[in-house]
Amino acid sequence: MGCWFMAKVLVVEDSAAVRLAVTEVIEQAGHEVVEAENGRVAIALLDGGAVFDLIVTDVLMPEADGVEVIKAARTHNPGAQVLAMSGGAPNLPAGYALKMAEMFAADAVLYKPFLNEELRKAIARLLSTTGGPEAG
């Protein structure tokens, strides 16, 4: 299952290793990736008018979390699909961070760790709902 257009994807992840791995999967699928090392950088991009087809964001990050990124996306880039990902935190109940992301309108969630194939499938599914640049 693939996507028929090259999407512009924002990857927001404070872990450099995870950000690199996610970026590689998305680029291998033929999409353009812009990376942000934290939510503050991502929000600045969105506030500045950058437009993305898909935003893949970690939920638990320093400076600005994924929920704040999702709120900024819904304000400045409402057409973007949002994929929230989180491994949770030791002091929070399992799934709490992703439940918060869902409450703030993430279109899909992935629990870390996930397989590359799970990420590919989630991205393909989300981008197939956008219809691509020719839609609308």
Give your account of this protein's structure:
- By secondary structure, this protein is α/β, with parallel strands linked by helices.
- It is 41% helix and 18% strand.
- The chain has 5 helices and 5 strands, in the order βαβαβαβαβα.
- Strands 2-1-3-4-5 form a 5-stranded parallel β-sheet, sandwiched between helices.
- β3 (54-58), α3 and β4 form a beta-alpha-beta unit.
- α2 runs parallel beside α3 (66-76).
- The radius of gyration is 14 Å and the shape is globular.
- The relative contact order is 0.20.
- The model is unreliable at 132-136 (pLDDT under 50).
Helix content range of the residues, please?
40-55%
Strand count, sense and barrel status of the largest sheet are: 5 strands, parallel
Q: How much is the radius of gyration in Å? A: 14 Å
Strands, total number: 5
**Shape estimate:** globular
Counting helices, strands and paired strands, the structural category is alpha/beta
Q: Element order, helices and strands? A: EHEHEHEHEH
Strand content: 15-25%
Mean pLDDT, nearest integer? 86
* Strand line-up in the sheet with most strands: 2-1-3-4-5
Tell me the span between the first and last alpha carbons: 22 Å
Instruction: Count helical runs.
Output: 5
Low-confidence stretches: 132-136
Pfam families: Response_reg (PF00072)
Keywords: Phosphoprotein
Modified residues (4-aspartylphosphate): 58
Domain Response regulatory: 8-127
